[in-house]
Records
---
Amino acid sequence: MVTLKERLMVMVEHAKKYEEIFKELENSRNRGLKAGGKFQFFPMRKHLVGYTKGFDGSSGLRKKLVMADSAKDVERLTSEFLKKVVS
């Protein structure tokens, strides 16, 4: 069984990979999408929701994650959440 921490760490990695791909594509057909910008990261937000269902405190985390503008935001919010859960 996958632990909550493992699930959320996969979510962070997913966000990082998503951003990395758009950085690579920046000079091709997706040249107008800026890595880390709201327009670019917006489609990733729907995937974050799927990772954050079915555990205590998920609603609060989800509300914050859907406002994230970058993988760095996702990592920070996840870290803050896990610190609260562990303590």
---
Amino acid sequence: FDFLTDRLIESHRRRGVCLGTHRIYSLMALVRLNDEFGGGLISDETKQDIMEFLAGARDLIVASQDEDGSWPPNWYDGAEALAKADPSAPFHRRVISTGHHLEWLAIAPEELHPPRVSILRAAKWMIQNTLETPQETIDANYTYYSHVGNALALWRKTSPPEFWTKWRTSHPEIEAGLTPAERSGTSGNTDAATSDH
């Protein structure tokens, strides 16, 4: 895996699938697997190279984070990201960048985390963006939005299927298709139904 690591690290950060973030996640996963299985998958020197590469990625996302909490598609430009931003870039590229970065950070040791406020701002942006985006837009961009659920599940130390299964079990009224008013037993009283929100 040392050779593979060298190949992943040597290219510019912007290269690769999903704005270069799959390389970052793969490197973080490799370190985690190496540690989990007692070492031997990669050399100590390679592990150090990976950790330095990931620390560099962390520093770039800290410097490039937008005021709204999202990470831009050109996160690899660091503090120059705003000045170098492509104004015609489709909105889903921010979903890609923010979701993927939150995914690798969720499996990273704390030493690689940006300040907690940066993580919280990114998560809040992703949640808000998902809530405000029309369902048909999410459906058309599902692969990008799937990273929202996965990232948030990883931070909860679970997986989306595990979380969803537990949630459905504890919320049977949702499975039955009941409205909030029907769930509260006030379907005929509009005042009570609206005050429930």
---
Amino acid sequence: MEKMVNKLAIDGGSKAKTTPNIPMYPGGLEIGEAEKKAVMQVLDDKYLFRYYGPSDVESKVKLFEEEFSSKIGVQHTLATNSCTSALICSLVALGVGPGDEVIVPGYTFFASCA
């Protein structure tokens, strides 16, 4: 067993991490001109949400939900802004309400118990 170092790196002790960070989250490298154009189209249309926007413009959220439903072979999908919102929607759809017991694993993402 290694002896614990008593000196922090800031005080001249050894660094705990010696490898450099990657330049950015790797998914960011996949953002190209097509993605920029799609985002700008949504912003230019001022139709950021499924049910709120100009009536003469098609909702990209609704279109995404329809295409995703078709791709995975289900009738309905619901795009949400976060996993927390998705979990809440799931609980509501199942009829879980205030006072109901929801059992979760001891080791889980913090939002699942929120």
---
Amino acid sequence: MSKRLVVSIVAVLAAGMFSPLLRAQDEKWNKIPPKRAAYNGKKPSGPAPRRDLTGIWDAAQTLGVSGATEHPALFPGGRGQEGGREDETGVAKPLPYTPAGLEALKKNKPSGPGVRQVDSVLTNDPAGKCDPLGFPYMFLWELRTLNVVQTPKQVIILSPFYGNYRVIWTDGRKPPADPDPRYNGYSVGRWVDDYTFEVQTTGMLPKTWLDHAGRAHSDQLVVDETYHRVAGDTIEYTMKITDPKMYTEPWLALNTLPLHLMPDDFDIPELLCSPSEFAEYNNQVATPVLRDPSKK
């Protein structure tokens, strides 16, 4: 993705240009969360507070770039560099597509790593045009650091990645019966016990994608989430997809994915989508490579 490339270049330049004194002054800003290896063997903290998700939570760079991590669009042992396939025949954990779901899949041309990847100038990925990602795509592409704010009637999830946010109502309302579709849909949540929060989201725009692998959905999509706070510093997050038009049965996209609590002064770096940067990337990198594959 062009923005990641730009951010990486800027970070390298900054590291060489700024003095140690200036870097020390900026330690509180644009923090980088620990990688997954940092949690290996680490014991959970003490008990979690009752009915509380408040805090800054990180998925330890579980970026999901090949689609839903429980059903990656990869061949067994693949690293996402195959590309060019019309469908997902041969992937390690195939999805239960209906004929309509398979037809819709073939119309989507993902640029993300996977068996169907195309060059970025050929993709019709909404993210490639800086369109809103919508839900659940925002969680099934790069699940980055989240800031969760809780009020008596709402749980609000903020993510600087693409400027995403969600509002989950907890005031007892039911999902709308005939909703006007929205990018993020309509979310209602409830506590089933002191440490388990369940959310159901409906009414998503059918033109959005489920994930970065180009999986499609219909107006019948229902996304069920479970946030299980197993310790003070850990949430296990699960997402289930139900869409009878596109899939013959429900399936798990994420299953007990750990989210780790960051310090309360953790400043989440901004990562927004810039149409001009995408255009520059395509002009300078993607289009020349497409015309001359030897430049890859």
